[in-house]
Design goal:
By secondary structure, the chain is an all-alpha fold. The chain is 84% helix and 0% strand. The longest helix has 37 residues.
Length: 459
């Protein structure tokens, strides 16, 4: 049940973030929303560059085999966090060289530090098996950030007030998290050069892969802004909204199930056992991604009419199918394909996959922008094509690790996705009727597979 609760916290965070984007898109003018979207991507990029290496290392080495090692690891992580935060602040002063004002650079750096600290804190709680506190803080973080950001936008609908809301939400949450975990995981700092070198060696390549992964949405948004100007707000909203469910779904499943897979692999289980566990893990990721995609396709047209601002709907709908396809393929490249390399600690392969995906996806978007006059459909279709090419290359690279895939919970969701798309494209009768028919078809085909997959999560 603890794992189900943790998954519920991830899903709640995803839903709140989804709702936040819709509210902000309706409150802000198109130009300010484009600026907000780019600001959030830059903060996430700074977070990964400065703090991902610490998080990756802590997920492998923290808390250690005993209480003494836990205290040392926690102290070193605190020192690493402080040092990386200082470097992040110093880099913010280089903002004017890239056309970014000093105040915006400093605010972005502070937001990245607070976001990185909050995520690292949650990672450490999760690997300590403190699932109850983890789930509570995960939900509190999503709620606090959403309320603070909306409050800033409600006070005045411009970028400065929204950014101030983001900052306030991060400060409030980090204060709350430190207070709630003061007995379980008190603040500490110490230095151990060997541990720091180990963390840098292990976490550095993972951070490089994370940077390459996050460069994809940044690159596509830059291409859209360069091609469309303020008219890029519609496809940028599609990128923000439709990537998030797949990212949250796959990352939450990976966080909950991957430690069990690692333990099974490290215990040197039999080849058949490893193949079965690996196949079940793949089925979870692919099956639930297909179920999510089918539900999105079934409700996309109606949801667009209800929640997307009128001025953005046409561009949003043109971009949405390709954005969703790209997001689902990227989730496969980022979570499913690197798994054998992660188990064997072949970190260069993980980095190579991330770089290939970044180059092909952004390259596809750039080529399509040039060939297709920079329309939203052309850019996102090019990005989806690049992601598909990266997936094929990744499958070829990873074919050396055999697994036993249970197809029963995967094929019906794939059929549901196809049927939902056909019904939505056909649109029999009104929009409500076509949405209802698509949802019934999705529910009928995915109910049993979903129950099977949920049982696997709880095991």
């Amino acid at each position: 049940m603890a794992k189900i609760a943790a998954l519920g916290a991830y899903l709640y965070q995803s839903l709140v973030a989804f709702g936040l984007l819709i509210v902000i898109a309706n409150l802000l003018p198109a130009k300010d929303y484009a600026g907000y979207s780019l600001f959030i991507s830059i903060v996430q990029f700074a977070d990964i560059v400065c703090f991902q290496w610490i998080s990756a290392a802590s997920s492998r080495f923290y808390p250690g085999p005993d209480q003494a090692s836990e205290q040392v690891e926690r102290g070193v992580i605190g020192t690493e966090l402080a040092g990386s935060g200082g470097i992040c602040l110093l880099v913010a002063f280089l903002g004017p060289l890239f056309g970014i004002s000093i105040w915006l650079g400093l605010v972005g750096a502070l937001a990245a530090i607070l976001q990185g600290a909050g995520e690292l804190h949650l990672t450490m709680l999760r690997f300590r098996q403190e699932f109850r506190l983890f789930s509570w803080l995960q939900g509190a973080r999503a709620t606090t950030l959403a309320l603070a950001t909306i409050t800033g936008a409600a006070l005045r609908a411009d970028l400065a007030h929204v950014v101030a809301g983001v900052m306030a939400g991060n400060v409030i949450y980090c204060t709350l998290a430190l207070f709630q975990s003061r007995q379980v995981m008190p603040l500490s700092a110490c230095w151990d050069g060997d541990i720091v070198k180990r963390n840098l060696a292990y976490g550095g390549i993972s951070a490089g892969a994370g940077v390459a992964t996050l460069l994809v949405p940044l690159g596509i948004k830059s291409i859209l802004l360069g091609s469309l100007g303020s008219a890029a707000a519609g496809p940028m909203l599609a990128l923000d909204l439709l990537q998030r469910p797949f990212v949250m779904l796959t990352s939450s499943l990976q966080a909950i199930r991957f430690p069990d897979l690692v333990a099974q692999f490290d215990r040197k289980g039999g080849a058949q056992t490893i193949q079965a566990e690996l196949g079940r893990y793949y089925a979870l990721l692919v099956g639930l991604s297909l179920i999510g995609a089918a539900a999105i396709v079934a409700t996309l047209s109606l949801a667009t009419q209800l929640v997307v601002p009128a001025g953005l709907r046409e561009a949003f709908l043109h971009a949405a199918p390709f954005v969703m396809l790209m997001a689902m393929l990227r989730a496969v490249v980022q979570t499913v394909l690197p798994t054998p390399a992660q188990l064997k600690r072949l970190l260069p392969i993980i980095l190579g996959l991330a770089i290939i995906e970044c180059v092909l996806t952004c390259g596809g978007a750039l080529a399509a922008a040039w060939l297709g006059a920079g329309t939203p459909m052309a850019v996102t279709a090019g990005a989806a094509t690049g992601a598909a090419a990266a997936t094929l290359i990744g499958v070829f690279m990873q074919r050396w690790r055999s697994f036993t895939m249970p197809w029963q919970p995967v094929l019906p969701p794939a059929a549901a996705l196809l049927l939902a798309w056909l019904i939505s494209a056909w649109q029999p009768g009104s929009l409500l009727i076509s949405t209802g028919l698509a949802l019934v078809a999705v529910a009928a085909l995915t109910a049993l597979p979903l129950l099977t997959l949920v049982r696997w999560i709880a095991v």
